[in-house]
Amino acid sequence: MESTVYRTIIAEDEELLLHNMVQKVQNSGLNFEVVGTAQTGAQAICLIKDLSPDLLITDIKMPVMDGMALLEKVYQNFPTLRTVIISGFSDFEYAQQAIRFRVDNYLLKPIDEEELYQTLFKIKTELELEQQENSHIFGFPASTNSREEIAEMLHEYINHNYTEDINLNSIAHNMNYSPSYLTKIFNQMYRTTPTKYIISRRMQKAKHLLLHHPEYSIGQIGNIVGYPEQGYFSRIFKKQTGVSPFEYRENNGS
């Protein structure tokens, strides 16, 4: 079976350093392919939306949107994307703060090739394990199924796992389809995207807990439905319903 290629985006504002990092990643021999490069965090976010990568490697100091702001957006909107920070010695302590965004590692410049290799090897191993888990979930190769069956399997998987980190990228790799293709066939059958469906299921569960379980705090409910950060849960909830979780509970409670 052909080895899986892990799609990578690199964000670095210094062109020579960017080119050097691209070469090091692609020469690692671990099947990481650089599918996009960015020199600002804003550019990186656009690439992530368009290319559905498995890994983001980002510098800390960049114009328009720095690496910390980029990591926060990734944490909030692309929770399954693996991330690695590269930073200069002067901002290394600053980079350590990014642990709250669940970064996989942070590397000091100049980048040591052996340390980079070990980091990529660890990420590749974890991604392979995720693919194996997804293989057990689906049970048989997607190539034997119709488009409708594939969409139904994805729908069932989301229904059983929407409170967890849903890694569409690793599922897509395992099924030998792109995330965009899975999104397309899911949308054709269910008139919504997988991401919107996940949010819908989470909001449905959150509303039920808010009304029927007053013993749970807002933060606890957010964590139960898949949003461990209370502030982010509240923003998503208000965006979807027009009111905050507290207001929803107050307005609809007995």
Description:
It is a single chain. The chain has 254 residues and is of the alpha/beta class. The protein folds into two domains: 6-127, Response regulator (Rossmann fold); 196-252, Homeodomain-like (Arc Repressor Mutant, subunit A, Orthogonal Bundle), CATH 1.10.10.60. The chain has helices at residues 15-26, 41-51, 67-77, 92-96, 113-138, 147-161, 168-175, 179-190, 194-212, 218-224, 230-241, 245-252; strands at 6-11, 32-38, 55-59, 82-87, 105-108. α4 links the parallel β4 (82-87) and β5 (105-108). The chain is globular.
User: What's the level 1 CATH class of the largest domain?
Assistant: Alpha Beta
For the biggest sheet, the summary is: 5 strands, parallel
Report the end-to-end length measured between terminal Cα atoms: 59 Å
Q: Which class do the helix and strand fractions yield?
A: alpha/beta
Quickly count the domains: 2
Averaged pLDDT: 84
- Which range does the strand content fall in? 5-15%
CATH architecture of the largest domain: 3-Layer(aba) Sandwich
Order of helices and strands: EHEHEHEHEHHHHHHHH
- The percent range for helix content is 55-70%
CATH topology of the largest domain: Rossmann fold
Question: Helical element count?
Answer: 12
* Spatial ordering of strands, largest sheet: 2-1-3-4-5
Mass-distribution shape: globular
User: Which radius of gyration do the C-alpha atoms yield?
Assistant: 20 Å
| CATH superfamily heading of the largest domain | Response regulator
**Which residues form runs of ≥5 with pLDDT under 50?**
none
| Number of E-type strands | 5
